Each structure stands twice: as C-alpha cells, then as structure tokens.
C-alpha cells in the first residue's frame, strides 16, 4: 500500500506540472496524466533546436 500511495503522490505532482487550466486538472485520471506528460515531453524534445527526431 505504501508503494501505491507513493506512486499516486508522484502522479498528482506530475498533474500539477502540466500546462493546463486549474479547473481541468482535477478531472484527469492517472492514465490521462501519464499520457499527457508523455506527449508534452515528446513535443518538447522534438522542438528543441538541433535535437529530437530526425536529427
């Protein structure tokens, strides 16, 4: 149970870092939080000058 609580706390912290309106964040499931974090991370990696996909 302690491990699950720690994972859930980290997902909640990750949710707070997403660039979304405050009203939308509480409605996100943990799966949505992880998917959006992956999309945001990939997008940032692709948009970095001289790095990312195709370099």
Automatic annotation (TrEMBL):
Q: What protein name does the entry list?
A: NPS4A protein
In terms of PROSITE patterns, this protein maps to: BHLH
Residue span, BHLH domain: 1-44
Known PANTHER family for this protein? HYPOXIA-INDUCIBLE FACTOR 1 ALPHA (PTHR23043), NEURONAL PAS DOMAIN-CONTAINING PROTEIN 4 (PTHR23043:SF24)
Please name the SUPFAM superfamilies in this protein's record: HLH, helix-loop-helix DNA-binding domain
Pfam family, any one: bHLH_NPAS4
Source species: Piaya cayana (Common squirrel cuckoo)
Q: Which InterPro entries match?
A: bHLH_dom, bHLH_NPAS4, HLH_DNA-bd_sf
Q: Which UniProt keywords apply?
A: Activator, DNA-binding, Nucleus, Repeat, Transcription, Transcription regulation
Q: Name one GO molecular function term.
A: RNA polymerase II transcription regulatory region sequence-specific DNA binding
């Amino acid at each position: 149970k302690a491990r699950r609580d720690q994972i859930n706390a980290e997902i909640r912290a990750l949710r707070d870092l997403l660039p979304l309106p405050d009203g939308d964040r509480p409605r996100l499931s943990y799966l949505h939080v992880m998917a959006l974090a992956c999309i945001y991370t990939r997008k940032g990696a692709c948009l970095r000058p001289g790095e990312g996909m195709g370099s």
